[in-house]
Design goal:
The chain has six helices and 18 strands. By secondary structure, it is α+β, with helices and mostly antiparallel strands. It is globular and about 45 Å long. It starts with a strand and ends with a strand.
Length: 309
C-alpha cells in the first residue's frame, strides 16, 4: 500500500486578473472578446487568492484536482505565490477546455504525472455542433511509486444557471459519458482498478422544488463510492448558494470500489475559507475572510488520505 492525500477544490474564478461580475451570462460576455475596459469584469483581489492559498496549504494534499482555473500558467503562478512553488508541487496537468469564461480543470501533484487525456472534443448527442462537457473530463495518471498508480477523472459539470430542471439533461449526459470513459479505460469491471472521479458535479442527489438530480446514476454507480456519505448527514454539504440560502454537496470524491474497500476512513471538508454569510458554519475561519469577499471560495475543498494498493 502507498499512502497519498487527495483533494478536490473548486477555487472559484482563479483568474490571472479578472472575475465575472454577478449575473453575467458568459456566452454573451465572450461574443466580442475581452478588453481591459470591459465592465463585465472586476479585478480579482489579492486577498481572495491569499485565502484560497491558505485553504490549499492547510489540506496538505499530495494530489489536487482543481476546478475554475483560468489556465495552466495561472495555476503555476498561484503555485509560485501561494503554495510554496515548484518544489512543493512539481507536476501540473491541464488542457484548455470548453467554458466560454475560460475556466478549466487542472491537477497539481507531488508525484509524476505520466499520462493526460482530454475529452473536451466530445460532441453533445443532442446538439452535435456543441460540446458535451461544459469544461472537460480530464483523465490523469499519477505514478505514486514504481509499482503504484492512481487515475484521476477531474470534472466540472454543467452549472444550474438557468434552473436545475432546465439544465438537468446536460448533466445526465455528462455523467453517463464519464461512466463510459471509465469503462472504456478499465473494462467491464472498472471498480477493481484504483481510480477517483472527482470535482464539482454541480448537482446534489436530493429532489426538491428546483427539480430532480442529474447525477444520480454516476454517484450511485456500483463501481464507485461517494465517500462523503460516510459523514453525518448534516455534515455532507460542500457549497453555499447565497441567493437561495442553500447548503448542498456539489463537490465529490467518488472512489473506485477497490479503493473504497481498502480505505475505511472518512473524508474531510474544510470550511474555514467560506465567506461569513455562510452562517451555517460558525467555527474558525482564515484571517481576513469577509462577509462576501475576501474568501477562498463558495465551495469547500474535500480531502481524504488513502492507501492505494
Amino acid at each position: 500500500m502507498t499512502a497519498v492525500r487527495i483533494s478536490t477544490f473548486n477555487v472559484e474564478n482563479l483568474f490571472a486578473r479578472w472575475r465575472f461580475k454577478e449575473g453575467i451570462d458568459p456566452s454573451l460576455a465572450n461574443t466580442r472578446g475581452w478588453t481591459v475596459n470591459e465592465t463585465l469584469f472586476s479585478e480579482l483581489g489579492a486577498g481572495d487568492k491569499a485565502i484560497t492559498g491558505a485553504a490549499v496549504r492547510s489540506e496538505k494534499a499530495d494530489l489536487i484536482g482543481f476546478q475554475e482555473v483560468e489556465n495552466v500558467d495561472t495555476l503555476k503562478n498561484f503555485r509560485a505565490r501561494s503554495l510554496g512553488g515548484r518544489s512543493e508541487y512539481p507536476h501540473v496537468a491541464g488542457v484548455d477546455g470548453n467554458d466560454p469564461r475560460r475556466i478549466d480543470v487542472a491537477v497539481l501533484s507531488r508525484s509524476p504525472i505520466t499520462r493526460i487525456r482530454s475529452y473536451q472534443h466530445l460532441a453533445d448527442p443532442d446538439a452535435l455542433t456543441s460540446s458535451l462537457f461544459s469544461r472537460d473530463c480530464l483523465e490523469v495518471d499519477v505514478q505514486l511509486t514504481e509499482r503504484t498508480m492512481v487515475t484521476l477523472f477531474v470534472n466540472h459539470f454543467k452549472s444550474m444557471m438557468g434552473g436545475r430542471a432546465a439544465t438537468r439533461s446536460r448533466r445526465m449526459l455528462q455523467a453517463a459519458a464519464v461512466q463510459r470513459i471509465v469503462t472504456d479505460r478499465f473494462g467491464s469491471n472498472p471498480g477493481a482498478h484504483p481510480f477517483i472521479i472527482m470535482g464539482d458535479l454541480n448537482d446534489y442527489l436530493e429532489s426538491d422544488d428546483q427539480g430532480d438530480s442529474g447525477i444520480t446514476e454516476l454517484v450511485e454507480w456500483d463501481q464507485v463510492d461517494n465517500v462523503i456519505n460516510r459523514l453525518p448527514e448534516d455534515e455532507r454539504w460542500t457549497h453555499f448558494w447565497a441567493k437561495g440560502n442553500k447548503y448542498h454537496q456539489l463537490d465529490y470524491l467518488l472512489l473506485s470500489r477497490s479503493l473504497a474497500d481498502a480505505n475505511a476512513a472518512k473524508p474531510e471538508i474544510l470550511r474555514k475559507g467560506l465567506p461569513l454569510r455562510a452562517t451555517r458554519y460558525a467555527d474558525e475561519r482564515f484571517p481576513g475572510v469577509g462577509q462576501d469577499h475576501p474568501k477562498a471560495s463558495d465551495h469547500c475543498p474535500v480531502t481524504m488520505t488513502l492507501d492505494v494498493p
